[in-house]
Amino acid sequence: MVRSKTSARVAVLEMAHVAKAFGGVQALVDAGLVLYPGEVHALLGENGAGKSTLLKTLAGVHRSDAGEITLHGRAFEQGSTRDSIEQGIAVIYQEPSLFPDLSLAENVFVGRQLVSGGLVDWAAMEKASRALFERLGVNLDPHAKARGISIADQQIVEIAKALSTDARIIVMDEPTAALSSQEVERLFSVVRNLRDQGGAVVFVSHRLDEVFALCDRMTVMRDGSTVGTSLIRDTTDSEVVRMMVGREVSELFPKLEPRIGDVVLKVENLGLAGQFSNISFEVRSGEIFALAGLVGSGRSEVIRAIFGIDRYDTGSVTIHGSRLAPGRPAVSMEQGIALVPEDRRQQGLFMASSIARNVAVTMLKKLTSWLLLRRTREESTAATWAETLQVKFANLADPVDKLSGGNQQKVVLAKWLATEPRVLIVDEPTRGIDVGTKAEVHKLLSQKAQQGMAVIMVSSELPEVMGMADRVFVMREGQHRGTLERSEATPEKIITLATGGAVAS
Ligand SMILES: Nc1ncnc2c1ncn2[C@@H]1O[C@H](COP(=O)(O)OP(=O)(O)OP(=O)(O)O)[C@@H](O)[C@H]1O
Ligand SMILES: [Mg+2]
Q1: How many structural domains is the chain composed of?
Q2: Are residues 138 and 85 in the same domain?
Q3: pTM of structure
Q4: What is the residue-averaged pLDDT of the chain?
Q5: How many CA atoms lie within 13 A of 371 on its CB side?
Q6: What is the DSSP letter of 256?
């Protein structure tokens, strides 16, 4: 820490020795965070390190068991979320929760409508919202209903709401996880704007490139405690990773020599009106086949159609030479296809069921049908996978919604890997997963491929595509724009194809 530089400034927030237990789980042991005005401060740590829990004590969602929290030198009043807002703290989550049937202006002022002469002053709220949107440099219509606007726009509305309450501390917990790269850029310029106006921003992300691009300082947590703070410009990425993981991570993309075999899955001329058309490719056993492209380019729609979640209008899918029935996920599973969806919270997990049940549910047939034995088998299968993926949990019988975000993702992945599919389709396999475990997931995918599994991977992270894929199939606006072999794929070529440059091969 650079004392001479920071001691002149007065911290807006000081959290020290914060502890919090949930039953037997000590989520926070000795956590701290010091925040200055006019900075963007990264809060980093592995999945389950306690980042969200620390921020939720600030948000008024949880009450800490011990520790000191001061705001502008005064004791922070731990109470409800409303109390936190009144003390100038705004928290923006990965998935904001606007009221869909209210207008954007109404959402900005929800719960504290502007009133003039005893009447709700709609015009004033619209005007104020418009001014806030302008200040944030975005083009949103205050009249529009919130329903159907993108997650990125919803976040902007949340930020506008934060500004309208005069929040001086703005906390963003993994705000970029569901955004496209352009949306990330827009969010960054909004954040820089807030910083330049003297706001203090806490930013959580598992993408180190974002942290280096945006943040001024960082605090790293490990196992519920803060392990260090430093200036971003004085820190290298391997130092960050070492602080987070507590050890050296040698290789982020441990790709094994592929053993490419016969064609397993063949997609011919697949089309769905308004979504995608003329999609044809073959995937071989042992191959990691990446679908690259911008968010919204139709990649997720294609794999959902292949697996049978959605139907398609034209074309066919064959697995080992036999035609796969469209629109029948159960049949696809029987044929050895697994799909790990992008939106895990909604599609991937039974939130109230145990970790063990979630891992085992898709493979119950493979487990013995003897009811008595089943439970222990379920536990041992789950335990093996949970260990491989380093899921951090207290008890396999705990419900999944008690896990940290990244650990929930790992459970979904474990659940599908446990079915030992012939074709594994993964949509954004490491979104929300910390760097150390990312390497584990990559290793696992690479090993599974080498053992003969065909892997289809949708990924928006170019390093992941570059590091893992044997071939890269690039889509734009629902169309195939080019395929790159591993040897010829470069980030520039992928971006050019994805954004409308020249068409290769
Ligand atoms: N409501 C809860 N009940 C029980 N345990 C909880 C609860 N919330 C969090 N935990 C536990 O507290 C620990 C810290 O979780 P937290 O969500 O703060 O991690 P995180 O650093 O935000 O991780 P990620 O990067 O995966 O989002 C985890 O072990 C988690 O299982
Ligand atoms: Mg979290």
Answers
A1: 3
A2: yes
A3: 0.75
A4: 85
A5: 0
A6: P
